[in-house]
User: Fold this.
Amino acid sequence: MEGFSFSTDVTVRFAETDAQGIAHHASFVVWLEVARVAYLDRFAGGYQAIRDQGLEALTTEVHVRYHGVAYFDEHLRVWARCVGVRGARFRYEYRIIRGEELIADGLTSHAVVRRDSYRPTRMPGWLNAAISAAESASSSTAS
Amino acid sequence: MEGFSFSTDVTVRFAETDAQGIAHHASFVVWLEVARVAYLDRFAGGYQAIRDQGLEALTTEVHVRYHGVAYFDEHLRVWARCVGVRGARFRYEYRIIRGEELIADGLTSHAVVRRDSYRPTRMPGWLNAAISAAESASSSTAS
Amino acid sequence: MEGFSFSTDVTVRFAETDAQGIAHHASFVVWLEVARVAYLDRFAGGYQAIRDQGLEALTTEVHVRYHGVAYFDEHLRVWARCVGVRGARFRYEYRIIRGEELIADGLTSHAVVRRDSYRPTRMPGWLNAAISAAESASSSTAS
Amino acid sequence: MEGFSFSTDVTVRFAETDAQGIAHHASFVVWLEVARVAYLDRFAGGYQAIRDQGLEALTTEVHVRYHGVAYFDEHLRVWARCVGVRGARFRYEYRIIRGEELIADGLTSHAVVRRDSYRPTRMPGWLNAAISAAESASSSTAS
Assistant:
């Protein structure tokens, strides 16, 4: 997908469906997190590497727009990119597709905090560098 | 809360927490739904009344901003109001508070669809009237 | 219910249903936990009181038998009793009913552990006493 | 694993952890379902094939014993086998391992029902045959 260099795949679990017969809208929020974790695994040693330094990334905003419904056992692709790193804060943008069809798009905002105090702290340099490298590769891919 | 006439209470379940030691951000999305359901119970005969007519309300957008963290077993109040009914579409706005502290605010957008086809259809008149009555009462309360 | 002196009520959330149109079977497991937490709130100062002493109660076994299905927005009553405290270990038994109808019964087993090591440790005397008091009241009620 | 010919892998999602810092015990129940769905995909055309005939498989019993804790982002293997098909009823048995370590074992019982009435109905012959073929292959593997 143009402007994105990373994606991960999810299959709609039965437990993620609801009585409307479709994937529950909160399931998408979990899939965005699955994509962030997979992104950090790929580019930055994993979210656990961040936790191992006594840090957590809090989610400060979630925004999802649903363009279609998804059904049990369907295979979805979640595209994710990390944008707008500034101090303690960063943002991800997402596209969720089934084949060629856009099912949802979204963004999440985050703040790096110390685990012991939940106080914001600047993103570690190594993480910022890893994200920059990942996303600059993405930009050149997309151009 | 000014501008809101309806609220419902939730207590953070252990299953809703995560390894950050706080309520997982996707749990809030479920609480917004709990509030919508309670709102419809109060003002419009319940969501099941809508389903009984072969209709569903799809969620087409979720936007939550987190201003604080919530912990296991805390009591939260979810304020909700229905705004902007137009054709098949309507929107809810929310404030989630713990005591006097704003923990999160949000909005969700919805479309009334026929259950058999998932095609949008105008909101039934009785539902529109029930929401208008509820919210005009709210406005006068708030003024 | 005979032999039980404690119950708590849950309403089936939409997010807890699945594409079978009923409450997902894993939702029941969460309701058992909701009942345990409410039980400890009532009789023993809350689960948080246990956590505040550096302890956690791990779940070591879950067994649920489903006798009926539950639907969205239904009101269920979860009866719970704590039985078989022995050293670090204890067990709960449950009945979930809708009106007079038994929807599910179950049991869960638990071990008290230190939070820093996850090593089992004897249940604190005050907690054991609180549970004994609660359940002996129950036995006399039931007889 | 001896006696099992099928397994599927899951990675512990952050949303599946709880404030004990480990995978919540209800998450395991969902993983058993993921394994059943993957099993049916492999051997019997998928659970959707069953649903397409107007049938559902209700879960009538869940029993999980937890032998260890699982942490965020860990890779687990869920072994599953279908045993004891009789009329409308069948059962699965499971082992969940991390590397060589047994984390949990369990069983689930199920009943085939018609979707319109939730009345039990004999398992379709093709499904019974597919399961028998899968499991007899397993037995010979294990011997």
